Fold Sulfur carrier protein ThiS.
Amino acid sequence: MQIELNGKPHPLPDGATLEQLIAALELTGRAVAVAVNRQVVPSQQWAAHALAETDKVDVVRAIGGG
């Protein structure tokens, strides 16, 4: 299947979850926020949140600075 990730096409296996996407992006354990179709999905729900064809996913990574 294909989703839109941060505005660009991104292929994923059918039935992939948000948790699997974050792992594939090597962002596990990092401070990130994820929205699917403009709805924020809490990290506690990533393992159960299956993605669907044409979902629009936005991943934002927090970066500290001073």
Observations:
- The beta strands are 2-5, 8-11, 32-36, 39-40, 56-61.
- The chain has a mean pLDDT of 95.
- The first helix runs from residue 18 to 24.
